[in-house]
Design brief:
By secondary structure, the protein is mainly α. Helices cover 51% and strands 7% of the residues. It has 12 helices and 5 strands. The strands form 2 sheets. Strands 3-4-5 form a 3-stranded mixed sheet. The protein has a two-stranded antiparallel sheet with strand order 1-2. Strand 1 and strand 2 form a beta hairpin. It starts with a helix and ends in a 13-residue tail after the last strand.
Length: 250
């Protein structure tokens, strides 16, 4: 019996360490902790900060794994940071550029996570049309292979008009991102049949290259049943409410 108990104890310890080192799982726990306000968020932030880079890279081999991890960490970092000091949001540009976040020992900004990793070294102010000719070594290690426009319906930068924060995992992220896109587009889009005018979120203008420009925006809106398949509406973009809101969870 003692041997059985010993073997079980070793097994439980092994499982515990395996879970602790599963950084996509840790990123999910971080989002859940931020949402529940259980006081454990900083411990998950520290685990991600102190992760072994090689171990993390081995766990982020696919775009699905990268998207799940970096969407979860981005959204959580925003909330944890602004909970500590909401005044940072008074200068949003500085906030997004601030290298106050750490992943596997690398000091990073929110801009790096969004534009370098999740948007594959996209130049921030290029409307999604230009990518860096000489991305850094770190970008090449962590960035996605292909840009997925749906990330824009999952990333929450702290503004009231941002998509709500969800919890993403690699196994189900395609379904989850489709659900996020569908919900956000239906909430933020309007189609005036009489004027044949489609009004959408300004995200689809700011990052128009990611969406395939105007033609792509229309096709996406057809895919999510925002407009009929047989129309070609003029495009308009709604205003964006930058009021701070760090309690916007799905």
């Amino acid at each position: 019996m003692k041997k059985i108990f010993l073997l079980l104890a070793v097994l439980f310890i092994h499982i515990g360490f395996a879970q602790e080192n599963d950084y996509v799982a840790i990123s999910k726990k971080l989002v859940e902790s931020v949402k529940s306000k259980d006081g454990k968020a900083q411990s998950y932030v520290d685990l991600i900060a102190n992760a072994d880079e090689d171990t993390l890279l081995k766990q982020l081999k696919t775009d699905n794994e990268r998207k799940a991890f970096f969407i979860n960490t981005y959204n959580s970092f925003v909330i944890v940071s602004l909970q500590k000091d909401p005044k940072q949001y008074e200068d949003r540009n500085a906030f997004f550029k601030s290298e106050q976040f750490v992943i596997a020992g690398n000091k990073l900004s929110l801009d790096v996570i969004e534009h370098d990793f999740l948007r594959r070294s996209s130049i921030k102010l290029s409307l999604g049309k230009l990518h860096k000719l000489f991305p850094s070594k770190l970008e090449r290690k962590f960035r996605v292979d292909e840009v997925d426009y749906r990330i824009h319906f999952a990333l929450n930068c702290g503004a009231k008009s941002c998509p709500p924060v969800g919890v993403y995992d690699a196994a189900n992220i395609d379904k989850q991102l489709n659900a996020s896109a569908n919900a956000y587009l239906k909430e933020k889009s309007t189609y005036n049949k009489k004027e044949n005018k489609l009004t959408v979120t300004p995200l689809m203008s700011w990052f128009r290259g990611d969406f395939g420009n105007k033609k792509g925006v229309r096709e996406i809106c057809k895919k999510f049943n925002i407009i009929p398949n047989n129309v070609k509406p003029d495009l308009d973009y709604a205003d964006y409410d930058w009021t701070l809101d760090i309690d916007n969870f799905r």
